[in-house]
Structures are given as C-alpha cells and as structure tokens.
Design goal:
This protein is of the alpha+beta class and 284 residues long. Helices cover 31% and strands 23% of the residues.
Amino acid sequence: MDRDKLRKYALDWLKSLAYAIVAATIVRLYVFETMLVPTGSMIPTINIGDRLFIEKITYTVKEPQIGDIVVFWAPFIDERALTMLRPFDKFMDLFAPSRFRGRVKYVKRLVGKEGDVLQIKLADDGKYHLYVNGKLNEKLKDIVYAPEGIFKYPELLNWFVEASRLRNNQTAYRQYLQKLAQKDVYAANLVFSVVGGMYPVPLGVPFDRTFSEIYKNVDLSKYIRVTPDGIEVEVPKGFYFFMGDNSNDSFDSRYFGFVPKDHLIGRPILRIWPLKDFGPVQGS
C-alpha cells in the first residue's frame, strides 16, 4: 500500500471512529446508560454490585407511577458512594450534565408524587406500612417501611444542614452534636453518621452545598408536619419521594428529603451483571 492510500485509509478509519464516538455519546446522553449499585437499599429486588441498564426515554414523555423503580441523580454530594464508583463509571459520568458532576446515581422505588400525603403506620398485620393519601397503595402493600428519618424527627433535614455547615470547624461541630445528644442521643448519632466529617466517619453528606438551592422556594415546615396521628409528609410541587425496599438499611427520602423532578434519569430495565442474575429488573 503506497503512502497516499495509507493516509486515506487512516483518515477514513479516524472518521469512522469519530462518528462512532459521537453516536455513542448521543446514545449515552439521551437513550441508555448503565449504573453500578453501591448499596443494599433495594434488596432483595436489586443487590449490591448489580450493574443495571437504564432506559432514559420513557420518563421524558410520561411521569413515573407510584411503585416504579427509578434511577435518579442524588440531590446532594454523597462522599462515601463516590469512593465506590469504578473507573468505568467515573469515565461515563464525565458525559453527565455539568450540574450533576460529583453526584452519584441512586435507584429507589417511587412512593410519593407531588401533592401526595405520606404516613408510615401500623397496619392490620402488625407491621409498619406506607399509607399514601390515607390508603395502602396496591404496589407498596407488601413492603414494610420503618418509621425513621423525617418520619421520626421532622427537624432532621435542618439538623443535617446545620451540622454540615459546622463540620469543617471541629470544635463547633462537636459542640453542636453534644448539644443535640442532650436532647436525643440516637438523633445525634444519626446526624454524625450521615454528615460525617470527623474520625471515624470522615466522609459523609455535606447537605449545605445543595440544600439552599433545592429548597429555596419550599418551606419544609409546611410539608413535614406533626399531627395527632403522627408525622405526615406532603410532597411539594415539582418533587418526588423515594424509598428503598430494604427499609432498615436504606438511605432514602426519609433521610435526604424530596428529589426534584429534573433529577430523574430513567428506568432500570435490565440487570447485566452479575451474569448469573442477568435479566429484567423485578417490578420495573
């Protein structure tokens, strides 16, 4: 092959590669992507280490329904989850919208849409279940949900934010936790375990970085309310409420609050890893 033909062959090959990269990027941005599941919040439906194939078209033309399993961008920086990402995931997330850089994907079940009023109460079977607008939803009736997080402490999100603002000042942070512990030791331990920032929990969730932006037009005291029947949560306009099936080990909206609608990514439709579990995602 002479030099001119070799140059033409190389140029054609580079053009084909460029077209393939552009096509793959478009597909990644608008049609499909994958995620690695870092936690067990959706066990037994989805397990730790599962890699899911996510379809991104459906929720651009219709709204998810209660009971759907949904993938969305976490509405905060999750420092621990970021350490669990593999090189492939870090590379693919370079193509994510710039405002979600440094975020991780979560997969949870949608349990509340805007306007829905949620309560976790004892049902006739003697277990705690989620009531949506006073009723047991057919798709959620077999899931047991623990009345934790904001269903136990209606001020929890504010505690997280204040602790996040103080955590770089170790003395002030410690004093804040001690003051909270005088009221409720469990609450203080919960705040510390989530916010982190000190040994032995150096990584955590700095809520203050995103809280004011997400809730700038929302008065949380109007949506997380104490009633004679216990704490009820109303989902504000423009938000969703998600919880994991593995309620006792799920960091979900009970702890991080409402998820803006524009944080949705799509539907997990297929488990592609591990190979022995290859197949459709249950209940999706």
